[in-house]
Design brief:
By secondary structure, this protein is an all-alpha fold. It has 6 helices and no strands.
Length: 154
């Protein structure tokens, strides 16, 4: 029983801890749910790979409060995100858009894969088309010397 309890405790501790403080939460549950959804899609500018919903950094707290302020002011989800992106840049989005200069970043992976495949294919074709090297068989004297070096008593 103790092992099961410890396993459950470890499992609970491994879950992500959300950093939203009670004083940040909105009284309207619908607005709070919208704010939490938006917060999960925004990057903490201090932690880099955490959402502001998960981060304990003070800047993440400020961004969470800003999201809630925009929602209580009547902004739609898109308007609130646009406001934050206009202020902090597209880096703040955990899932950047595929517009503008970001299309190159989205296309870079597949392009590099195609480039590597093309280089590998040309290498293999060139190798297959290369003439075979002219390697002569060992002469009788070389065979005798090799047997002596290897200690072969033939």
């Amino acid at each position: 029983m103790k092992k099961v309890f410890m396993a459950l405790l470890v499992g609970l501790l491994a879950m992500p801890a959300f950093a939203v403080q009670p004083d940040e939460m909105l009284s309207d549950p619908a607005l709070e749910n919208r704010a939490r959804e938006l917060s999960r899609g925004l990057r903490c500018l201090v932690c880099k790979n955490e959402s502001i919903d998960e981060s304990n950094a003070s800047l993440a707290r400020d961004l969470r409060i800003l999201v809630r302020d925009r929602l209580t002011a009547g902004d739609s989800d898109d308007e609130a995100i646009e406001f934050i992106v206009a202020r902090y840049g597209e880096f703040v989005l955990l899932r950047p858009t595929v517009t503008g200069s970001n299309w190159l970043l989205w296309a870079a992976g597949p392009l590099m894969l195609l480039l590597a495949g093309g280089i590998g294919l040309s290498y293999l074709r060139g190798r297959a088309a290369a003439p075979e090297s002219d390697i002569a068989a060992l002469s009788d004297a070389e065979k005798t010397r090799l047997a002596e070096v290897l200690g072969d008593k033939r």
